[in-house]
Amino acid sequence: MDIEQARADILSRDRLVWDMGERELRRRVERGELRRLGPGRFVTTKRWEGLYAEDRHLLEVVACDQRRQGGEAVVSHVSAAVLHGLPLYRTRPTRVHISGGGTDGRTNSGGLVAHHGVAVPDEDVVTIGGIRCTGLTRTAYDVARQVSRNAAVACLDAAMRSVAWDERSRTYDPERAEQWRDAVMTRLTTGARGIRQARWVFAFADGRAQLPGESVSRVLLDELGFRHIRLQVPFVGPAGQDWAVDFGLDDVAALGEFDGEGKYVEAELRAGRTIEQVVRREKEREDWIRGISQRRFVRWTSAQLASAAALRDRLARHGVHPPR
Fold it and tell me: What three-state secondary structure class fits 114?
């Protein structure tokens, strides 16, 4: 979902009253057909239930922005992250976060808005879809200190990828990625809350990860003791195809791949192929790569990302064990 789509999905109270009357509006809210996004703003429950957490929060951020009347505070933290299109892995924000002077450096979290009383310099402010928010670097810095380590890595990997990945040429620029990392690391010199985690996350981030599940897989593999992990390991298929495997586990001469559900269930990602055709194609690809690499090949899904132990058990079933 983008900001314009979010605006189209948000229904104002005035519009609803005009269309159906006060009594019918109240009745639909009571029946659960409409969900409140804040004072005077609603979305249909059917639409809400079909959205990812990031899209739900984007609706809340846009609804909040529509209600605001001026002021210098800007959208920040996880709320700015969704404006930048970054993932919030298993994070469910309960408030819209804004930052700006006025609360002596404290966070006022009353109601539906969390106000962080910290100044945001002009160079840290951008406008996305007409909404003023913290820029990518400042947003990444704030998120890395605010959410869980898994969510922070997923968000920062995506932020780095947005800087270093060229979709047109389908190439990744490691030099640009390192320049961006260095720019953010200069912020990590104060004693701010969460700074220790932020340092670890920024040092660990890698924009070659394509999905949040890949990012979290790498965190768990690191916890298990894998130290030589290559991302997007290239292979050439039998007809000259350019293939890449998510992980090269070089400690143990194995290959690993995170299987997101999207490649099988989302029509856009299947590119016109049936689920059966996608499964058969993946099997043929895996067999070829296993044969030419002479390495064990392990796949896992979100279910195995519940913990490092769950992923370890999945690897063990395929004869892959953490290095000792």
Answer: strand
SS3 208: coil
End-to-end CA distance of the chain: 45
Instruction: Round to whole Å and give the CA distance between 110 and 98.
Output: 12
Assign residue 116 a region: left if phi > 0, alpha if psi is -120 to 50, beta otherwise?
Answer: beta
138 CB-side CA count, 13 A: 20
Sheet with 242-249, edge to edge strand ranges:
229-236, 242-249, 254-258, 296-300
Residue segments in the chain with a per-residue pLDDT below the cut of 50: 104
Supply the pLDDT for residue 104.
46
Contacts by residues 191-196 (CB-CB < 8 Å, ≥ 24 positions apart)? 192/145, 193/145, 194/144, 194/145, 194/146, 195/145
d(CA 135, CA 125): 5
**Would you call 31 exposed, middle or buried from its count of C-beta atoms within 10 A (0-12, 13-18, 19+)?**
exposed
Is 246:312 a contact under the CB 8 Å cutoff? no
Burial 44-59 (b: 16+ CB within 10 A, else e): eeebbeebeebbbbbb
Q: What is the pLDDT of residue 263?
A: 57
Amino acid at residue number 60: E
